[in-house]
Amino acid sequence: MRIISGILGGRKIYPPAKMLKTRPTTDIAKEGLFNILENNLDISSLKTLDLFGGTGCISYELASRGSADLTIVEKDPVMFEFIKKTAGLLQLPNFKVLKMDVFKYLDQCPETFDLIFAGPPYALTSINELPKKITELKLLNSKGWFVLEHTPANNFKDFPLYKTQRNYGTTVFSIFINN
After folding, report:
1. Of 12, 13, 60, 79, which is the most exposed, with the fewest CB atoms less than 10 Å away?
2. Cβ–Cβ < 8 Å for 109, 139
């Protein structure tokens, strides 16, 4: 796993060998996603939230490209510690890692964000609740983006704020924008 671009571009990240519930976003999908983000948003000005943080690779990429306000939510204790350790090694300031259930976090979240990314386990049965909760709880700032990573089996085209999707093989990103 590596950071693709930015000030940390090329740095390799070595996640724990046994990540039974974690599936890092592939470099091809991540590169495609960041091309979309960089062509539409000023990453350096974004307040971001990374749900189901996993290895933290999306937030490391955001930090490498200039985002200075990052929050990651990850409930798995091994991955939580890995993210904290890696953020320290990369010397990332303004990087907050929370060990808790994503849905509980959303229910009590006191903040709003410019970019929310969610890369839940593909087997998550409540994946359809994510765009609903984020919309109902008004967690996106004006013109804020919510990007949901999922399989081609999921379809979010009829959900509020849905704008488009991009397909990278078995990885699909649905994009929701708060106008």
Report:
1. 12
2. yes
Give the pLDDT confidence of 94-148 residue by residue, as tens digits. Answer: 889 999 999 999 999 999 999 999 999 878 899 999 999 999 999 999 999 999 9
Pairing status of strand 171-177 against strand 140-150: antiparallel
Q: Is residue 77 part of a domain?
A: yes
Domain extent, residue 157, equals 27-177
What are the DSSP E strand ranges found in 5-139? 47-51, 69-73, 95-98, 113-118
162 — pLDDT class (breaks 50, 70, 90): very high
Using alpha carbons only, give the angle 173, 1, 45 rounded to the nearest 5 degrees: 55
Q: How far apart are CA 3 and CA 32, in angstroms?
A: 13
pLDDT of 19 over the 70 cut: no
Task: Report the Cα 35 to chain-centroid distance in Å.
Answer: 15
Q: What is the CATH number of the domain that holds 97?
A: 3.40.50.150
Cβ neighbours for 114, distance < 8 A, ≥ 6 positions apart: 41, 45, 46, 47, 48, 140, 141, 143, 144, 145
pTM over 0.70: yes
